[in-house]
Amino acid sequence: MKRAKPFVPAFYIVFLMLPIYWLLNMSFKTTNEILGSFTLWPNNFTLENYTTIFTDPTWYNGYIDSLTYVGINTVISVTVALPAAYAFSRYRFMGDKHLFFWLLTNRMAPPAVFALPFLQLYSEVGLFDTHIAVALAHALFNIPLAVWILEGFMSGVPKELDETAYVDGYSFPRFFIKIFIPAIIAGIGVAAFFCFMFSWVELLLAKTLTSVAAKPIAAVMTRTASTSGYELGLLAAAGSLTIIPGAFVIYFVRNYIAKGFALGRV
Amino acid sequence: MTGKFTNQKAWFLVLPVVVLVAFNALIPLMTVVNYSFQESFGNNIFFWEGTKWFEEVLHSDRFAASLGRQIVFTSIILAIEIPFGVAIALSMPRKGPWVSVCLVLMALPLLIPWNVVGAMWNIFALPDIGLLGKTLNALGFDYDYTQQPISAWFTVILMDVWHWTSLVVLLSFAGLSSIPEAYYQAAKIDGASSWAVIRYIELPKMKRVLIIAFLLRFMDSFMIYTEPFVLTGGGPGNATTFLSIDLVKVALGQFDLGPAGAISLIYFLIILLTCWLFYTLAMKDEAQ
User: Fold this and answer.
1) Which candidate from A3, A88, A218 shows the least CB-CB separation from B115?
2) How far does A45 lie from chain B, in Å, by closest CA?
3) DSSP A179
4) Chain A residue at shortest CA distance from B97
5) CA distances, A54 to each of A30, A61, A237, A238 (Å)
6) What CA–CA distance (Å, rounded) separates B46 from A227?
7) CA-CA distances (angstroms) from residue A264 to B73, B76, B84?
8) What gap in Å lies between CA A211 and CA A216, rounded to an integer?
9) SS3 A92
């Protein structure tokens, strides 16, 4: 394409990387160097902040807790969304359009509106401060998301595939698992990626629904920032580590990422 | 929608989703509705109050102020991120090894937990030890986002542009990639200028994804909580107290359940109505 102007995206990427660089820079500095001087790179390079995180259970348990509820949420959301998305993409049934729209409205609900009712609801059913509570709460916006993404991908699969399989004598569950799921495996990957991502980045609900046993890493960070003085280096190291899971999963879906953000509808 | 056949048994396939989402959406929503019409003095004893809380909220200066700030913020965000994102997508290479590199790097900010985004910009913008703050002050600007409302707004907006413009870029790019090469060849044969190519081929083809981009950016910026909360805590004063921050203060801070319920319902309705209105208008245009 002759109109490609590589310097525009290049500038933009530099702009994106600057704050991330600054966070990494801080994470390799000692608290004294951070507060005492302004340096563009660490003069007394130290791994002390990272050592603290990997040896102190309150820190590394935060990561384990976060990854646990994010994992549970991803599995639940994708599993229940698969048959639903199939129904929406293949059949017409009573109230289907209303149902689809109602699911959509849950993506528009501000988490701040749900924070207090969720706290009461999950305390009432005895799930407060468990991984499953956060996983279920995040399902509020992740299930609709997974349904749309999967529906988008499934609509791209010709109906002849289903019909041929039924003619060949496949039952619905066998067809679904043996033939259909392999055909939309990319879509499942993308849906899982987005569930992972939106559960990983959300903090308000995760923080409200947990106190000790299932505290997400994000909440550990906020509490550290307010209690143990101003340990910027430690905070920066913890922040840098939270970027890794995202960067890791994004690599696997790089070819589908744009389609996924368009909710499978490009 | 063609080629679908009616099958009421499809409800069984949808049932798990309906049960889970209903548990999560309807029960809390009913709680909110309950609170918004009642008065509580603790011990779970409630008195019917009718529309008192709604009238109180709609007449309060505090709600009007945070709603006003929210509308200004969302308008600025949309006015910057949509054109900026489209421009970047248009100037990106369409094929080759650099595409993946660009997309992965650009998507990175979208995958950082929101409180880390706030903390990162907090460190980045501090006037004494942050790169941005230090640079601006060295250039002669009097910049301190912890003290001056203007600086705080500048920082919150720049942070959001940093955080979310990539979403618009990715969506626009997906729209552009779906344009067949033949369209460009036809334009070339007709001697179309590059502006004409943008105006008559690329923008119309991007319309669908741009509607999605606009809707997503509207909803998410209207619900913004964590990033400004971590960055400025809503301050200095109340300068960056947006709707969600105010609502959490009322609901979880002061435990004023009645007003919190009323604010919640009004808040949710504003988002629903705006999305519906925008979508209807955008699609009506499509049909013509």
Assistant:
1) A218
2) 17
3) I
4) A255
5) 17, 9, 11, 10
6) 37
7) 29, 28, 23
8) 9
9) strand
User: pLDDT (tens digit, 9 = 90+) per residue, B144-161?
Assistant: 888 899 999 999 999 999
Contact A139, A77 (CB under 8 A): yes
Chain B residues close to A202, C-beta within 8 Å: 113-114
- Tell me the Cα Rg of chain B: 23
- Is the bond preceding A57 in cis, omega lying within 30 degrees of 0? no
Burial annotation A80-115 (CB, 10 A radius, 16+ → b, else e): bbbbbbbbbbbbebeebeebbebbbebbbbbbbbbb
pLDDT tens-digit readout, B20-72: 888 888 888 888 888 888 776 665 667 777 777 888 888 888 899 999 999 99
Q: All domains of chain A, ordered by start, with CATH?
A: 1-46 (no CATH), 53-261 (1.10.3720.10)
Decide if B202 contacts A255 (C-beta within 8 A): no
Cross-chain residue pair B14–A83, CB shorter than 8 Å? yes
- Of A38, A51, A41, A23, the residue nearest A236 (C-alpha): A23
Residue of B nearest to A225 (CA): B119
Chain B touched by A101 (CB under 8 Å): no
| From B13, B25, B105, residue closest to A140, measured CB to CB | B25
Looking up tokens 């807790």 gives A65
- Number of Cβ atoms within 10 Å of the Cβ of B94: 15
The predicted structure's pLDDT at residue B251:
82
A179 and B CB contact within 8 Å: no
Shortest CA gap A130–chain B (Å) = 16
Q: What is the DSSP string of chain B?
A: -TT-EE-TTHHHHHHHHHHHHHHHHHHHHHHHHHHHTEEE-STT-EEE-TTHHHHHHHH-HHHHHHHHHHHHHHHHHHHHHHHHHHHHHHTS-SSSHHHHHHHHHHHGGGGS-HHHHHHHHHHHH-TTT-HHHHHHHHTT----TTT-HHHHHHHHHHHHHHHHHHHHHHHHHHHHHTS-HHHHHHHHHTT--HHHHIIIIIHHHHHHHHHHHHHHHHHHHHT--HHHHHHHTT-STTTT--HHHHHHIIIIIS--HHHHHHHHHHHHHHHHHHHHHHHHHHHHHHH-
Q: Quick check: helix, strand or coil at residue A129?
A: coil
| ipTM entry | 0.84
Per-residue pLDDT, A11: 92
All structural domains of chain B, each given as residue ranges with its CATH number in brackets, are 62-287 (1.10.3720.10)
- Which residue stretches of A91-180 are H helix? 96-107, 111-124, 131-155, 160-167, 172-175
A91 SS3 class: strand
Q: Bridge partners of B39?
A: B47
Reported as a single tens digit per residue, the pLDDT across A217-249 is 877 877 666 555 567 888 888 889 998 888 888
Q: How many CB atoms lie within 10 A of CB B235?
A: 16
Return mean pLDDT, chain A.
85
| Closest residue by Cα to residue A188 from A106, A85, A91 | A85
Residue A103 has pLDDT above 90, yes or no: no
